Amino acid sequence: LDVLSVAIEKGIDLNMVNNEGHTALMLAAREADKESVDMMLRANASPLIKTGDGSTAYSLAMQSGRQVVAATLAEAEVLHGIESENADVVADAVRRGAFVNIRNGAGWTPLMLATAQKRPDIVQARALAVFFC
């Protein structure tokens, strides 16, 4: 964690990919290194980057049985999706169990984005999540 902290302070590009198309966030997610995942997300590592085969940090965490890390990444996907106004990303993350009332820095929730973009599928995904919780 100390080395990662120094690298972040020095301005490392956390979204850079290796030869296999994996980011540092993906590798940490696969290894269930929650502290590193949290640190990278705070430093604005993107959970939305995909490898050539479509894998994401979330999917790699799930494949490795790292459900707590996966839940953290799903919520980060919601926040990044709201910030980039990508309703599809938000809907997918909510369907996978992301906290439906999470707010970004401006106070927006998935429901607010869904309403602004006239996306009833996100509203329905949110309603189902609330119903089954």
Describe the protein in words:
The structure is a single chain. By secondary structure, the chain is an all-alpha fold. It contains 8 helices and no strands. It has helices spanning 2-9, 24-30, 34-42, 57-63, 67-83, 87-95, 110-116, 120-132. Helix 6 (87-95) packs parallel to helix 8 (120-132). The protein is globular and about 45 Å long. The protein starts with a helix and ends with a helix.
Keywords:
133 residues, mainly alpha
Instruction: Quote the distance from N terminus to C terminus.
Output: 34 Å
Order of helices and strands: HHHHHHHH
Number of strands: 0
Helix content: 55-70%
Mean of pLDDT: 88
**Structure annotation, total helices:** 8
SSE class = mainly alpha
Q: Work out the radius of gyration.
A: 15 Å
Assembly state of the chains shown: single chain
> Which percent range describes the beta-strand content?
under 5%
Question: What shape does the CA trace take?
Answer: globular
Main sheet attributes: strand count, strand direction, barrel closure = none
In the predicted model, the low-confidence regions spanning at least 5 consecutive residues are: none
Gist of the model:
The chain has helices spanning 2-9, 24-30, 34-42, 57-63, 67-83, 87-95, 110-116, 120-132. By secondary structure, the chain is mainly α. The longest helix is centred in the middle third of the chain and has 17 residues, at 67-83.
Secondary structure topology:
Elements: H1 2-9, H2 24-30, H3 34-42, H4 57-63, H5 67-83, H6 87-95, H7 110-116, H8 120-132
Helix pairs in contact: 2-3, 2-4, 3-5, 4-5, 5-6, 6-8, 7-8
